[in-house]
Each structure stands twice: as C-alpha cells, then as structure tokens.
Amino acid sequence: MADQKHGDGGEQQAPIIVIKKGGHGGHHGGAWKVAYADLVTSMMSLFIVLWLTSQKQDVKEAVAGYFRDPGAFNKAAHGGVLDGASILPEQGGGAGPNGTQPTPEQVRQEQEKILEKTAEKVREGLAGMPDFKQLEGQIEIKMTDVGLNIQLVEKSNSLFFDVGSQNLSASAREVMSVLAASLGELPNKLAIEGHTDSRPYPAGAVYTNWELSADRANSARRYMLEHGLRAGQVAEVRGFADTRPRNPDDASDVQNRRISITVLYDDAAQRAAATAAAVAGGAAATFAIPESGGAGAGGGHEAAPTGHATGH
Fold first, then answer.
1. What average pLDDT does this structure show over 243-255?
2. pTM, rounded to two decimals
C-alpha cells in the first residue's frame, strides 16, 4: 500500500502539543497586606470603643468634643474645653480642676466633708437599731482636731462591758457592727482607746486597770475587724486606765469607763499642711500627729507604768 502523502508529496508531520503546567504563578501583588491592614484597623477600632465604654462620663464627653472640634484642644491650656486638665485618670491624687496642686487646706476640707458624711451615715445606721433609744445618750459622735471621734460611754447600767470585764455585751457588739460596716469603707486609719474609772482591784491583784483598758480596746478592735474593718486599718490600740477621766471631778464616775474610736485624718495631708505652714513661715518643716492622749498600752506605744492608779 502506498504511503499517504501530504501536500507536495512530503511526509505527514505529527501535531505539536503544548502543555502548560499549573502552579501558583508567583506573587499576589501584595493584596494580602491590604486585607491584613484592614483587620488590624478593625481590631484597633474595637479596642478603642471598648475602652471608651468603660470610661467616666467626663472622659466620654471630652473625646466626643475632640471629634466635633479638634482645633479647640490646641488652646486647652488657655481655658479651652478641658481647661488644661488631662482626660486620663489621675495617678496618686494630683492636680485640681485647673491643673494646680490642691492646697493643704483644700485637702483637709475635703477630708472633713468625707468624715462628716461618714458620721451622718453612722448616725443613720445606729438609729435603725431596735434598742437605739436605750443607747442614744451613750454614743457620742463629733469632729476633733485629729479626725472623727466616736465614744461608747458607760452609765450606771454597764451597757457595753460588765464591771471588770473585757467581754463585749450584746449591745456593744451591735453598735460595733454598725461602726465597722461604715468605717471599713474609708481609707483612713483608726485609733481605738480604752478608759476606765478609778475603782481599785483588790490589793495585790496582778491584773489592773491598765490591762483592763487595753484589753477592752483590743476586744473592740478584734470584733470590728471580723465585721467590716479592713485588715491593717487599725493603727493604734491604747489603754489609758483612769488617767483621762471624762469627769475629772469624780475619777470613780462610771462615765469615765468608755471606748473611744477615732477615724484619723490622712497622714499625708497633715504632712502637706505642716510643710506648707513651715514654708510660708520660713521655718523648717516638722510633723507630728496630734494625740488625743498620752502614753498607752498596745498599738506599738510604750505601756504606762502599772504602778499607777488602779481600778475598774
């Protein structure tokens, strides 16, 4: 059989097949970077929104004011929208509304306001007690030079402690529960003092009024720590025996038996006030917390000599 010819008689050529292999075809031109940038921007926006929703109202208003009129913030230090104040939370006290440090007098006045509000809260809590009418004349609450002072004063009925005993009565525990709940909310330190009358123990007794007054103050401390005071909030526990009578004309008067609880002013504020006064007077600054009494027992203070007058 004769061979088939193509065209002019040449042989038929095999078809040329071109095969293109698949693959990723190199780079994508950076499109993934754009997508990643969008993701990061979205996440940042989310976190900013979450931060804003957790801020105080004045911070939210400041941020909103910036977006309404950014140029106004360029003159903030000259009476602009923030009067030069930062929208961030202050660290450690710091400046007042105009970016200035508050004076010691302003700090003391602010503390007085807080303690006066606390005193009112304590009065309201005590007024809600079922037997408050019986206690009303035996609880004194007043402001002093060192802070808010609360005294539980005995009368003839021995309402808070039995004669010669350090154990709290049911009425005393009820009162101290109210005090602990209110005072435990404050950052201030407390000083607790015990006082007795001058009625003596039997001759030769080892346990005297010094121990009794300190033990009563410490009983009050323990109970209030269990019912609302913060750990470490009590700075001083003192026992004065009969050396600080409430009725100096009659040392044996039962009203001399009492527990005194003082919410102290903040030490730092007192130091600032003392320093400011010294600088204004051109003298070296000194500082000492005014004491409501002399030497006592407990709380890191030197115990008074047990050879002093004894009693209940």
1. 92
2. 0.57
